[in-house]
Amino acid sequence: MVNADGNLRSSSMSRNVTSTHASCHINESYKYIFLPMCYSFTFILSLGLNSIILYRSLRRTKQWNSSLIYMFNLALTDFMYGLSLPFLIASYIKRDQWIFGDFMCRLVRFLFYFNLYCSIFFLTCISFHRYLGICHPMRTITMETKKTVRAICILVWAVIFALTSPIFRFARTATSGNNTICWDDALDSDLLHYVPYGIFLHLIGFFGPFSIIAWCYSRVVKTIFQTMNSQQFQSPVPGLNKRRKSIKTIVTITLLFALCFFPFHVTRTLFLVLRASPGIDCHTMSIVSICYKVTRPLASFNAWLNALLYFLTKDKWSQSCLKPCKPENESKSSGNIFRPFP
Prior knowledge:
This protein has nine helices and two strands; from the N terminus they run ααααααββααα. By secondary structure, it is mostly helical. It has one domain: Rhodopsin 7-helix transmembrane proteins (Rhopdopsin 7-helix transmembrane proteins, Up-down Bundle), CATH 1.20.1070. Strands 1-2 form a two-stranded antiparallel ribbon. The longest helix is centred in the last third of the chain and has 40 residues, at 236-275.
């Protein structure tokens, strides 16, 4: 039987689609050390770094621009995710024993995916905002007003809530032997309904936004390269240095985004497909389950990597990077991707 986090246990299956895994058992004792360590690390850094950003943002509400509004919402969702981690840490320390009740099980599982996809969508909004600021600065003036950005943020919260709310139905507690387990995906009786939903969520929540981010940053890099040899820059050496730093920042952000989310979504999609497929041998299922378990903390790392990138890159994306082709009034809203503060 596949339990809350993908463990395969020996038991009878309630549906034929999973009966092929009935005799498969995986030794995953490593996760009771590995996962609490990863989640504890994320918990400390996520709350610490994001609380600083939220505090600084709330102190400067009168100075908010489009970038800061996006960054505040991103930090808020990462901070909220960090608050849910102690429940998971306690559960793994107690070797999958869930002691917080069925409602908290559903809430914690919901918060993981809700904040995960809110984070992805806000990163996508930031990337598109940066693309407009660099490649279409005049259009940014009319499309990226504070009122518009606030409306976009509200829309993101609403859309992600609608996309992830079914998790409240699927996630639940169940008894396995003497243990009460908090299921991450769905019971076997709901599997045929959950697998299409899970794959749809991955496509809409990750693969679509990732394609948009990759396209936006590719256009930004192309624009920066085109301006490197432009004769309108009077100081070519400083200009080249700033543009090289900008490109390095873009590449770093894109790679970290892919590192955090891509392995998790690929392995989880594969795990769901195999779990619902007959005729899958135990060895294959074991490998996929372990890969899924190992990549799961990578997705949570983004909760503090976003904030860390803000502090590390705040001086590297100069607001004058493309100064000759940028309107003077847009210097505040078209600054560093992770530095909205003037």
